[in-house]
């Protein structure tokens, strides 16, 4: 890495650390009121809502989603009985005619991926993302579904109402979002031109032991309290996440049952080698998903894909410490710029 790049990294890190530190001094009660106001008024996506301008500004400031030279749109779309909160970031100036759909992981929300959003906009990409049902500002039973197909159905609604006619569209998904995006792509192969999966949830870490506990406890326990693990080496990120009012604090066992159903379905029958090709990046210190199983499964089913094991990386590669995060971003940048088949 060139010296100038190293200086740029340090400057960017200071900027983010200062922003994160300032966020802790915001009035949390006022922020929560703003979030509740956005939820209750449920503005339609991309429609002007002057009465919500202050609330949306506070939301964007807290999650570092404000940006100069950027057209910002947000609001809700209908997905069956649910209302899904969608955001779009359109960089001004040297803008590519390409869009990246960004999908977050379980218990998380789009706002926590602000570093990735800024990085993609700096590369000239329009970024579209949404909070999964039951997460962030979207409606739905908190952090649970009856089956994973519900996430895919919501993705389809977003695609049809926000992304249709905006080709090319690329997919960048993390964890649960990566798995949801992959399954959607399997059914609608023309949806995405390039696909990048970051630590996809193909099977959780120590899954077999978890299924034993699930079988024993499902009759007596409905929810588990979330334990905030060390899933990144970025201490500022870990501290911010614990204070984040949009992070889900409970893990319903119904969601684990839906996950088990999805995993069991993936393993039925003989493996079929797919012609689809993607970039998969996995941290070698990830203790959230079973990275070894995930790579083996993906190589068996998608032999034309590219796999990168990130040395020292934990689960939150998009929110890792500066060096690992920058390496991850450079891999994403190169893959998006490369021609198909390279």
Give the overall pLDDT as a whole number.
Answer: 91
Main sheet characteristics: 8 strands, mixed
Order of helices and strands: HHHEEEHEHEHEHEHEHEHEH
Number of domains: 1
Please identify the structural class as seen in this structure.
Answer: alpha/beta
Instruction: Outline the low-pLDDT stretches.
Output: 1-11
Taken as a percent bin, the fraction of beta residues is: 15-25%
The main sheet orders its strands as: 1-2-4-3-5-6-9-10
Ends distance: 23 Å
What is the correct CATH architecture?
3-Layer(aba) Sandwich
Number of strands: 10
Radius of gyration from CA coordinates:
19 Å
Question: Helix amount, in percent?
Answer: 40-55%
CATH structural class: Alpha Beta
CATH homology-level superfamily:
Alpha/Beta hydrolase fold, catalytic domain
What is the overall shape?
globular
Helix count?
11
Under CATH, the topology is which?
Answer: Rossmann fold
